Amino acid sequence: MIVGADGIHSAVRACLFGHDAPRFTGNMCWRATIPLDAHPLSIVSPDASFWLGPHGHVVTYYLRAGKMVNVVAIRETSEWVEESWNVPSSAEEMAAAFPGWHRNVLQLFANAARVYKWGLFDRDPMAAWSSGRITLLGDAAHPMLPFLSQGAAMAIEDAFVLARTLSLGRNVADSLKLYEGARLPRTSRVQLESRKRGETYHTASPLQQIYRDLRYKLKQLIEPQSTGLQAGWVYSYDATTAPLTGQS
């Protein structure tokens, strides 16, 4: 058996289904971690926070028991941006992409010492990702935008479900088809919803912004312990118990 878990530029995928370039989504991302002397910062909420604005959004959350803040800043761009995760940037360049944003966000940017940037790429959902004794896993099968923060999570779910199908004792080809059938609808939904979130988070229409914000706030009031961003369906899935289509 061969499992192609070799990323968005998967050689295994290309061998099975032909080469096609991933799609630049028109978004670029900056990431920075900011060490702290005091916790929590007055400008950073103690929980994970989303700052939504026209053509971009910023996510902040604490790491290492509050010893640093992780910053992920997404901005739409018409220019192609390199895909690599380790292209150096700067606090100044990151801040320049968010003119007029809330002073707390800009102050946080100013404290960033090491900043990296990269372009965000994805692909359309596949109709199939297994052939005989060969299959795909993770970004090789379903690269996606990080707007639901599920890229790595989907790969981990894939691995659990693949292990479950192989443990049934069927031949490898049948096990891989069962794995694909169980996972493809789930990952396709997450891929497409991640794209849609970009439109929702980045809308520049004042009326759409008001509707979006009120909808999120109402959802949070109704279910305080649920996610205000209406992604409960993402987190309620359990890869260790989810039904396997065709399992006898």
Description:
- Helix content is 36%, strand content 21%.
- With 248 residues, it is of the alpha+beta class.
- It has two domains: 2-21 and 125-235, FAD/NAD(P)-binding domain (3-Layer(bba) Sandwich), CATH 3.50.50.60; 23-122, D-Amino Acid Oxidase, Chain A, domain 2 (2-Layer Sandwich).
- The mean pLDDT is 90.
- It is built from seven helices and eight strands.
- α4 packs antiparallel against α5.
- The protein has a six-stranded antiparallel sheet, with helices on both faces. A two-stranded parallel ribbon has the order 1-8.
- A hairpin with a 2-residue loop joins β3 and β4 (56-63).
Write the SSE topology.
Layout: E1 2-4, H1 11-17, E2 23-35, E3 49-53, E4 56-63, E5 68-76, E6 87-88, H2 91-96, H3 103-110, E7 115-122, E8 134-136, H4 151-166, H5 172-202, H6 206-222, H7 232-235
Parallel strand pairs: 1-8
Antiparallel strand pairs: 2-5, 2-7, 3-4, 4-5, 6-7
Helix pairs in contact: 4-5
